[in-house]
Amino acid sequence: MNSVIELSMSSIESTLGTLPELGDEATKSLQAEFQRAGLSDDRKRQILNAIDNVNRPGFRLSLRAIPRLMKPVTWFPPMWAFLCGAVSTGKSLIDYWDVLTAGLILAGPLMCAMSQAMNDYFDRDVDAINEPDRPIPAGLISKSASWIVTIGLILIAFVVSWLIHPYVLAISFASVLMSHLYSGPPFRAKGNGWFGNLVVGLAYEGVAWLTGSFAFTKGVPSTESIFMAVIFSLGAHGIMTLNDFKSVVGDKIRGVKSIPVQLGERNAAILAVSVMNAAQLTAILILAARTSWLWASVALGLLLCQFPMQRLLINNPRDRAIWYNSFGTLLYVLCMMASALGVRP
């Protein structure tokens, strides 16, 4: 077993040109990390093949792999946030069904998909370890082909944004810059979980919420709606922290300072739920200040329902993080909608 691990680590170090030179102590630490992760021999071989694929020359574009590059499972949060922003304006969604439809397409299948494709390009070395079956590490889409997909999505998104409103085009342009700020050089915000998770939270929740508000008001949304967008963006920092649990092994190898890597998994889980709870509690206080008692009560009930789930998460964060992101986070986003309903004019 040790010889297999040593072979894997030697191959990884020689193939990844960007991997810093490691001393004996660091190498042993990484070998132990593979052992702790319980990687099978097949998984190690898959990782080594993925590392070869990410920088292999040539143009490859499997049409069947494009949806995987765009990662539809990630589209829901910004589409939901757009819907919350639209609801917060008090406008009729039925009367403005065309704006609603265009905005949802913009938030999910265009802007979010663009950010995923861009992130896959810049994250290809990390994905080779964490998710070797992603399209680029799997050899289905080359680096150059991934940029064609990304730029195509950007151009279509800009056209749709302009058709909705020039304000929305400006927001979309800012979103593209935020995507590059998060994934690409020279800043690569995701290299540090404190900053990177903040950028993603603002893009996925805040920017999408404000896009919905601007699209329906054709002007500046209400102060309460803006506050809610900011509050739930900050709370999403916790959601992004939980999402980092699946990548701890690769993050340690690549030197990505995610919150679980920096604080340890239990402390990271405590921080994540605390941030999410603080955002929801602040939103509830705003609703109470507006005397929106019904929606404040609904939001409070949703928050209280999360507490038992959070205890399970904290007691076993590694195994429960994905589970909580599926079920506990659902209650968080329902609290977002309750807050949007509560701040309508």
> Which class do the helix and strand fractions yield?
mainly alpha
Q: Could you give the order of the helices and strands? A: HHHHHHHHHHHHHHHH
Compute the number of strand runs: 0
Distance between the termini: 65 Å
Corresponding CATH architecture of the domain at 222-345: Up-down Bundle
Bin the strand percentage. under 5%
Number of separate helices? 16
Unreliable spans are 1-23
The first-level CATH class of the domain at 222-345 is given as Mainly Alpha
What is the general shape?
A: globular
At CATH level 3, the topology of the domain at 222-345 is: Four Helix Bundle (Hemerythrin (Met), subunit A)
User: Helicity level, as a percent range?
Assistant: over 70%
Query: What's the mean pLDDT score?
Result: 88
Radius of gyration: 21 Å
**Main beta sheet:** none
Annotation keywords:
disordered N terminus; 345 residues; mainly alpha; single chain; 16 helices
